[in-house]
Design goal:
It comes from Aurantimonas endophytica. By secondary structure, the chain is of the alpha+beta class. The chain contains two helices and three strands; from the N terminus they run H-E-E-E-H. A hairpin with an 8-residue loop joins strand 1 and strand 2.
């Protein structure tokens, strides 16, 4: 029996699943998030003028509250703990 392969599915770049898991774990550690909080990590391409080519968007989803969003203008594997801290630093 052979498995179905979706020809339209995005190709997974090597190292991305591990990088996503590490970024989620670092977000939880940095923000001291409990296990019941959802952390979403997405990489988006932007084609608008003046927009970076790629950005990583980290969403913190807490029941009963609005989402908290951090953005880093790098690919997922390039995001560092310092980038993450800056993305979620309080804004003046």
């Amino acid at each position: 029996m052979s498995g179905f392969v979706n020809p339209l599915a995005r190709k997974q770049n090597p190292g991305y699943p591990q990088a996503v898991a590490a970024l989620k774990a670092e977000t939880r550690r940095l923000l001291r998030l409990p296990d019941d909080v959802t952390v979403s990590v997405t990489e988006l391409a932007c084609r608008d003028l003046g927009c970076p080519d790629i950005e990583t968007v980290i969403g913190i989803l807490v029941a009963g509250a609005g989402p908290r969003i951090g953005k880093v203008h790098k690919t997922i594997p390039e995001v560092t703990p310092a980038d993450l801290a800056a993305a979620f630093a309080p804004q003046p």
